[in-house]
Design brief:
rod-shaped, 5 helices, 134 residues
Length: 134
């Protein structure tokens, strides 16, 4: 049971670390911008799921502490519970980082919107030329 909980905890932390690393990338093209925006969207939509998983893990570790028999088990369970309790703080920090990055990307979004608009105009102009020749 403990191994399963440790695996869940490590998986959540790895995902948060990967999301944090993805947020640090500066998009140079539209695909990179879409990838960063997807990470931000995933973080925003995953809040409730993360809270549920965090609460579940905290309750599991709290129960282990409650039913610990020896002093060594109590110390170990208390340390594990303190570690799991940091998960909520780490998630909140990731959410704040995602919001900050989203705000910082406003200028980049505008730039790519203008480029896309120009590309659409060029394609529609080229399509108009081809329609006239047919």
């Amino acid at each position: 049971m403990l191994e399963h909980d440790v695996a869940i905890l490590n998986g959540l932390r790895e995902k948060m670390a990967a999301d944090h690393a993805a947020l640090q990338e500066q998009p140079d093209d539209l695909e990179q911008l879409k990838a960063v925006l997807h990470v931000i969207s995933t973080i925003r939509s995953g809040g409730m799921q993360m809270e549920l998983q965090s609460s579940d893990l905290q309750e599991r570790y709290r129960t282990r502490l409650l039913y610990a028999i020896t002093a060594a088990e109590r110390e170990s369970a208390a340390a594990e519970l303190a570690d799991v309790s940091q998960l909520s703080h780490e998630w909140a920090t990731l959410c704040e980082t995602a919001e900050r990055v989203d705000m910082q990307l406003a200028a980049v979004k505008i730039k790519f919107a203008e480029i896309t608009k120009q590309q659409v105009q060029a394609v529609s102009w080229n399509a108009g030329i081809h329609v006239d020749t047919i």
